[in-house]
Amino acid sequence: MAPEFRCDCPITSALDIVGDRWMLVIVKQMLIEDKRTFKDFVESDEAVATNILAAKLKCLENHGLIAKTRHPTNKKTNLYFLTEKGLSLAPLIVELALWSDTNLRDVHPTMRNQKEQFASMRKDRKAFVSKLQRHHREAMEASQRS
């Protein structure tokens, strides 16, 4: 299914795919929180409704950002993994996290404080992104070997 784009602007075009309320949340959950199954996503703090989650996972899959496979030991359960295209969003996720930590604490004082993680991100963004991507790839490879 080809996406509909509002205009020819690269930024607007990217937002047409990942700019809604849930898309980057799901990518973040997969990349940082190791969410892999529908149940994992449903039980997360963000509490996305199941019908919306199903639609967003399908959309991410249709756009090539995630891939769905069967769980090796439970054929009724699907596992979701980021593709290379999805993993390429990791720098954006890290920059959003850092921006939020710097700019939203005054208006959202109860936001989780992850000083060590943010310090690591700030110290070497590229290394932090590479570590996230490597961890995700290793998890995907391990599930395929099972």
Notes on the protein architecture:
It is a single chain. The protein is built from 8 helices and 2 strands. The chain is mainly alpha-helical and 146 residues long. The chain has one domain (10-145): Winged helix-like DNA-binding domain superfamily/Winged helix DNA-binding domain (Arc Repressor Mutant, subunit A). Strands 1-2 form a two-stranded antiparallel sheet. Helix 6 crosses helix 8 (125-145) and helix 7 crosses helix 8 (125-145).
H/E topology pattern: HHHHEEHHHH
CATH topology: Arc Repressor Mutant, subunit A
- By CATH, the superfamily comes out as Winged helix-like DNA-binding domain superfamily/Winged helix DNA-binding domain
Average pLDDT confidence is 91
Radius of gyration: 16 Å
Number of strands: 2
> How much strand content do the residues show?
5-15%
CATH-defined architecture = Orthogonal Bundle
- Fraction of residues in helices? 55-70%
